Amino acid sequence: MSTIVGLVLAAGGGRRYGGPKALVRHEDGRLLVERAVATLRDGGCARIVVVLGAESARVRAEAQLGDARLVDNPTWKSGMGSSLRAGLAAMAEDDAADAVAVLLVDTPGIGPDAVARLLAAAEGGPKSLVTATYHGKRGHPVILGRDHWAGVATLATADVGARAYLVAHTDLVQTVPCEDIADDTDLDVPPEQ
């Protein structure tokens, strides 16, 4: 059985939102970063890595993340691509990890059911490339097998994570419809008061 580790990208400064989204309280009272970690854990990832950047010390102080491994991305201002690279680099040290399940901190409409569905579909271990789809459009979570990490890291730049790699290797990507159990809308701006 494959070991798939959860990877939360939570380093952004939330410029349009008005502050780091990792520190935003969701309607359930939890910080978005806490919710993302719980989503991956409850979906079946026994181990979680969280990439931090903006307000890293504050996130560490305020968020209840259990035994999640926290990794700092010193170049977080350059965009999500650098956070994905930082997370994959941290995971490369873990010989037991066959793949990572990537979740963005600002997608609270994705719950454990979507993660579990993707984990169940990822039978290729280190060769896995699995993405959730929403009405035919690719979204999160995304499972990246170890065999693809170097290629993903090479193409992950600015605010482009694994997208360029997935497009270049579309024939290898397994898509898993999730619109019936999740909503991958990201929180770009605060809800109107």
TrEMBL record:
Which key words tag this protein in UniProt? Transferase
Source domain of life: Bacteria
- Looking at the keywords, is Lipoprotein present? no
Q: Which stretches make up the MobA-like NTP transferase domain?
A: 6-169
Q: Which GO terms describe its molecular function?
A: transferase activity
What InterPro entries does the record tag this protein with?
Answer: MobA-like_NTP_Trfase, Nucleotide-diphossugar_trans
Q: What is this protein called?
A: NTP transferase domain-containing protein
Origin species: Dactylosporangium cerinum
